Amino acid sequence: MYNNYFNLKQAPFSIAPDPRYLFMSERHREALAHLLYGIGSGGGFVLLTGEIGAGKTTVCRCFIEQVPENCRLAYIFNPKLTVEELLLTICDEFRIALPPASAGAIGVKGYVDAINAYLLASHAQGNNNVLVIDEAQNLSAQVLEQLRLLTNLETSERKLLQIILIGQPELRTILARPELEQLAQRVIARYHLGPLSEAETGAYVAHRLSVAGTHAGSPLIFPIPLSLAPLIHRLTQGVPRRINLLCDRALLGAYVENSAQVTPKILRRAAQEVFAGEPAAARAPLRWPLVAGGVLAGAAISAAAWQAVPHAVAPAPVPARAQAVAAAAPAGHPVKPVAVAAPASAPHQPLALATQEEALRELGALWGQQLPAGEPCQGAPKLGLRCYTGRGGVYELRLLDRPAIVALHDGQNLGYAVLSAMDADSATLSVNGRREKVSLGALATRFDGEFTTLWKAARGFRDEVKPGDSGPDVDWIAGRLAQLNESAAPPAAQPFDAPTRRLLRSFQAGQNLKADGVAGPRTYMRLNQLSGVDEPRLLAATAAAPGKPK
To answer: What CA–CA distance (Å, rounded) separates 233 from 480?
Structure first.
């Protein structure tokens, strides 16, 4: 009704979980990072909880759009099912073939056997399988126990089924029951999605208006002034769905009153209509630890600041100073350093990010090489190194287990840093030899998942070896596969034939790689690691000193 009046393309405050409107607050980035990390962590359960309307389902939809190509995903949104109904639903979602109905009742054992056979066959093809269950607080204890039993199928390196449970806060209480202790012990990561801060509330409202069509050329710029953010936050406790309901009604009120903008009076009247019957001062939801036994989130990071989140402190917002940042440059052009703001009380100076070239040259030093200026990646092969650029964020970097440069964004600005070390809940960033330790949550707020790393390869090696190729790189691959299989090395100058390709596919499947029988950068990296090639590691207790790779 009010879209034409405010020059909007569509209603900006719909409560439908549209990923286009996902506002990546610090907490939403952390939640998404946990889900992405979970699918590459070797199996088990990942738990995402949050208050009603906090944005759990929207984060889940965004996660589904970002799963890797080798990930087979099943999504259950109505889990009020019996054990047999759940198993049948899993079979339907994964498209598992079942005996015809004329063969008689299948039963729990028949469903489980079919699921197990599917998981084994899928794993042999190099695929991961992820089961996402929304509204998981509705699962019965019997169904949860059956889910735990499904995760018993595993290889020596990983479980064959990853299960993500998404639900309201009572899901944590359910999993704390003594009879579900075994399942609770298999939760490898858990995150509670709390409310938005006051600053994030203003940014959230502006973001949704922008996506819906509000722009600088509109006759009515931001019909909901940002100055109303404190009042909106107080009326909604920072819960996204409540913000949507309130702002939608407020825009309607402004339209009815022929007002160019929402006023505090219109906003309070909208709150009375939308939240009628609720206590005047509803209790705000609590914030909870990032991961089991991990760190408490304690930061409210503004849209123009970066701040390290302190560890082991109460989850109170920490003010951050906005730091001047350089304008973004097109790809391939130098990027001016971006300042990373430290807390106001911090005694040290902010960590200023580097250009892409500077970060790549610092990364090369970890491999004991001085990459050439100008185009470091083009000159790297002459030094026995290759550049590899990928996406996938923190969980992908954990799998690769090697330092990398990461692009850190701040609105339209960006800079680069070397991610030189990582543990369960923190990361070490290095810029021109200076290091700063930040929480993974703080990293997730600025890291969009794109990274560049290095891997060792002798001169003349191709970046991708395909069937029929021959040469020193083929000899090297065949030799490494023979070494890992404890078999005799094949003769030199042999072509990359069918038996070697079968060995490579088997290796790739066992290492959670795409089992296509083609030796690309990720396969080279893993062969390097397992065969003892001297390269620095990301997950070591401390990062390797320049020139002394671990």
So the answer is: 59
Indicate the pLDDT class of residue 277, thresholds 50, 70 and 90: low
Of 84, 51, 75, 195, the C-alpha closest to 132 is 75
Span 365-388, pLDDT tens digits: 999 999 998 889 999 998 999 999
> Which runs of consecutive H residues, i.e. helices, occur in 125-197?
141-150, 170-175, 181-184
- The whole-model pTM stands at 0.51
A 10 A CB-CB count for 544 gives 20
Q: Running DSSP on this structure, what letter comes out for residue 347?
A: S
CA distance 142 to 107: 15
Of the candidates 392, 522, 389, 398, the one whose C-alpha atom is nearest the C-alpha of residue 448 is 392
Element at 386 (helix H, strand E): strand 385-390
Report the chain's terminal Cα–Cα distance, integer Å. 63
C-alpha–C-alpha distance, residues 147 and 141, integer Å: 10
Contact status, residue 298 vs residue 310, Cβ threshold 8 Å: yes
The answer to whether the beta carbons of residues 390 and 396 sit under 8 Å apart is yes
Q: Can you name the residues that pair with 187 across neighbouring β-strands? A: 45
Between β-strands 187-193 and 447-456, what pairing exists: parallel, antiparallel or unpaired?
unpaired
> Residue 544: which region, alpha, beta or left (left: phi > 0; alpha: psi -120 to 50)?
beta
Could you say which DSSP state residue 465 is in? Answer: B
How far, in Å, CA of 333 to CA of 335, rounded? 6
Cα distances (angstroms) measured from residue 505 to each of 157, 472, 508, 510, 517: 17, 20, 5, 9, 5
Cβ neighbours for 275, distance < 8 A, ≥ 6 positions apart: 235, 242, 246
